[in-house]
Amino acid sequence: MKRALICVDVEHDFLPGGSLAVPDGDHVIAPLQAVASHCDCVVATRDYHPEDHVSFTPYGGTWPPHCVAGTRGAELHPAIAALAGSVVDKGTARGADAYSGFDGTHLHELLQQQGITELVIGGLATDYCVLATVRDALRLGYTVTVLDDAIRAVNVTPGDGRRALEEMRRAGARIMHSAQFIRECIPTGMML
To answer: How many domains does the chain have?
Structure first.
């Protein structure tokens, strides 16, 4: 069984100081770094929107302009960029939104080419892009683990993150802490 770590949208605009900052969004970085060496590959997804994207409030959308292609806000955090063997852009068409890393991208084909059957998922934000990516991964037949210490929620409505996590659990994703995941990856007899 081959495993990929999917780092969802750990971009400057979703981190503290960004145009659509997720509270404590930078706290996802350390657990993602810790888990990366226990996976066969690391793929980062990123919002990469045109400046007049349909999701932006000036164009009738829900969100302030964020992750505009070619801007610092759309760049991955350097620690995640250093981990990622591949980067998959989403939300690149002006008139179509895309929360899932699989929506309108080549992510599934990329994973299939590498023989990946298990996904470990973390990133931003729990209640939007992480949830949508997990839903699609499960629908496509992947075994999915969500790292509960490597996700953070927008929580537009209080509790959205908690409800999203429960939805992922009910849909069949395993929810666990990165330290527990790492312990499971270490062969019996190797632990001190």
So the answer is: 1
Give domain status of residue 191, yes or no: no
Kindly list the catalytic residues: 9, 90, 129
Amino acid making up residue 125: A
CB 3 within 8 A of CB 116: yes
Q: What are the DSSP calls for the chain, one per residue?
A: -EEEEEEE--BGGGSTTSTTPPTTGGGGHHHHHHHHTTSSEEEEEEE-B-TT-TTBGGGT-SB-S--BTTSGGGSBPHHHHHH-SEEEEE--STT----STTTTSSHHHHHHHTTEEEEEEEEE-IIIIIHHHHHHHHHTT-EEEEEEEEEE---SSTTHHHHHHHHHHHHT-EEE-HHHHHHHHSPTT---
* pLDDT, tens digit, 9 for 90 and up, residues 18-43: 999 999 999 999 999 999 999 999 99
- Give the predicted TM-score (pTM) of the model: 0.95
Domain membership of residue 129 (yes or no) is yes
Provide the pLDDT for residue 186.
79
CATH number of the domain that residue 93 is part of: 3.40.50.850
Please check whether residue 192 lies inside any domain of the structure. no
Q: Is residue 108 in some structural domain?
A: yes
pLDDT tens across 142-191, in order?
999 999 999 999 999 999 999 999 999 999 999 999 999 999 987 755 44
